[in-house]
C-alpha cells in the first residue's frame, strides 16, 4: 500500500525515541529534521513512572529538543488521568503510582490533601500506572477493597501494556498484568485513559491545526499499546519503529 500524504504525526517517546536515558539511533537528528519540515506533531507518551515534568527534563538532559506540556507538545497518560479525575468529582483516589506521578495527578483535585489526612474519608476511586514499588500484596489488596466497596468506584488505568522496555534494554512487566489482576478479582473493567484509547488520540489530534486532506500518522514501538485500538478505529497511518518490543517472542 502506498504511503498517504501525512499531515501530522503522533510520536511515542519511551522505546521509540529513547530507552531509559539513551536516545535510540538517529532519534535526535530525526526530530531536528522534523521540526525543520514544519509538519505538525505531538509527543504521546504512556510513561507514568515519573511525572511529565521530570520526563521532559530528562529528555532535554540527553539532547532532545522537547518542549513542555504547557506548550501543548507533550501529551501524557498522566495528563489524561488529571482530566478524568477533574471531571468525575472524586475526592480521594487510591493511587498505585510513583510519588511524582501521584502529585501530578492529585493536583487536579482541590481537596485531595485534606481528604488524604482524614481517615474518615474513604477512598472513592483507584488509579493505576507503572509503580513497581507499589505492586505488593498490601497495596493491591487496598485497591481491591476499594473497588469492591460500596457504590460505583471509578477504576482508571494509565495504560495496560503487558511489558515495557527497561533502561537496561531488557523487557520488564508493565502495569497491564496488575490492572488485569484487579479486574479479575473485583469483577470490574478498568477505564484506560492513555494510549491506545480512542479518546486519547481524538483529544491530541483536536489540539492540532491540521487540514482535512491527508492522514495523521502514529509512530510507536508497540503494536498494541501504541498502534492498536483507537489508532485503528480512527484510521491513523500506523508506523512501527525498528526498536519494537513487539518483536519479542517467548521461547519454550
Key features of this structure:
HAD-SF_hydro_IIA, single chain, 33% helix, Rossmann fold, globular, 252 residues, 9 helices, disordered C terminus, 13 strands
Enumerate the strands of the largest sheet in spatial order, edge to edge or round the barrel.
5-4-1-12-13
General form: globular
Poorly predicted ranges = 245-252
Largest sheet composition: 5 strands, parallel
Helix and strand content put the structural class at alpha/beta
Organism: Heliocybe sulcata
GO molecular function: phosphatase activity
Pfam family, one: Hydrolase_6
InterPro entries: HAD-like_sf (IPR036412), HAD-SF_hydro_IIA (IPR006357), HAD_sf (IPR023214)
Can you offer a commentary on this structure?
By secondary structure, the chain is an alpha/beta fold. The chain has two domains: 6-77 and 195-247, HAD superfamily/HAD-like (Rossmann fold, 3-Layer(aba) Sandwich), CATH 3.40.50.1000; 89-192, HAD superfamily/HAD-like (Rossmann fold), CATH 3.40.50.1000. 33% of the residues lie in helices and 19% in strands. The protein is built from nine helices and 13 strands. The chain has helices spanning 27-37, 52-61, 77-88, 99-106, 112-117, 137-147, 176-186, 198-206, 230-233; strands spanning 6-11, 18-19, 22-23, 41-45, 74-76, 93-96, 125-128, 155-157, 163-165, 171-173, 191-192, 215-220, 237-240. The protein has a five-stranded parallel sheet with strand order 5-4-1-12-13. Strands 6-7-8-11 form a four-stranded parallel sheet, covered by helices on one side. Strands 2-3 form a two-stranded antiparallel sheet. Strand 4, helix 2 (52-61) and strand 5 form a beta-alpha-beta unit. Helix 3 crosses helix 4 (99-106) and helix 6 crosses helix 7 (176-186). The longest helix has 12 residues, at 77-88. The chain is globular and about 55 Å long.
